[in-house]
Amino acid sequence: MSEAAAAIAPGPGERLTMAFFDRSVHEVAPALIGCELRVGEAAGVIVETEAYDAGDPACHAYVGRTARNEVLFGPPGRAYVYLSYGIHSLLNAVAEPDGSAAAVLIRALEPSDGIELMRARRGRAELGELCSGPGKLTEALGIGLELNGADLTEPPFELSAPVGEWTRTEVVSGTRIGITKAVELPWRYCAAGNRHVSRPWPAQGRAAA
DNA sequence: GCCAGGATCGTCT
DNA sequence: GACGATCCTGGCG
């Protein structure tokens, strides 16, 4: 394949680059499923994401450019981190070219490394309680507001393409969670049958095709 | 096991 | 002055 195509779709275990994010958020969101996100010693495989684009009433960028959502309008591959309900930091990956506001919310990970560190940070022992939610995984990985605007392709982040079984993971889509606007849009993606998603799939029984 | 309610604060009206 | 891309706890069955 061409060099450009290789950058968009890196081989198993290879680091993701800015080119990976420099396309439609609706391509990036499902493509992130199975990728490993690492911050220092803690790491997990992405098993649930949601897409938000500029024409979407539920997207922070929908109201136009403000001090808070500035990062969304910037170059792809950056982290957009913001505070939700005054308590939780939520992590998004900015997608689409510079000037176009879109991002992928990382909703859940399956812990893969640094489990004990995550348990200590979370104050919980159960594996399924470490990263099964957008606010949980940022706490487990130690991601805070200070990382807003940071480059996801550079330290402290390390984002790599799926390996092993994850390269064959089936991605299913459904409606998004926890929002009050545009709830009907089917822009939530997750690894079929995964036990670490933030909430059971609405139609778990017929998710597999 | 399920559900209702509270915590907590930056951002925008 | 109200609200939100959430999480946890306690109460009840």
Short structural description:
This protein is α+β, with helices and mostly antiparallel strands and 209 residues long.
Tally of contiguous helical segments: 5
Give the end-to-end Cα distance, rounded to a whole number of Å: 29 Å
Which percent band covers the strand fraction? Answer: 25-35%
The poorly predicted ranges are 203-209
Mean pLDDT across all amino acids = 92
Helix content: 10-25%
Q: How would you sum up the major sheet?
A: 8 strands, antiparallel
Helix and strand succession? HHHEEEEEHHEEE
> What is the SS-derived class?
alpha+beta
Record field, number of beta strands:
8
- Rg (CA only): 16 Å
Question: Shape, please?
Answer: globular
How would you sum up this structure, described in words?
The protein is an alpha+beta fold and 209 residues long. It is 16% helix and 25% strand. The protein has five helices and eight strands; from the N terminus they run αααβββββααβββ. It has helices spanning 3-8, 18-21, 25-31, 115-122, 134-141; strands spanning 36-39, 42-53, 79-84, 88-94, 102-113, 157-160, 171-174, 188-191. Strands 1, 2, 3, 4, 5, 6, 7 and 8 form an eight-stranded antiparallel beta sheet that branches. Helix 4 packs across helix 5. Mean pLDDT is 92; it is low at 203-209. The structure holds a DNA duplex (13 and 13 nucleotides).
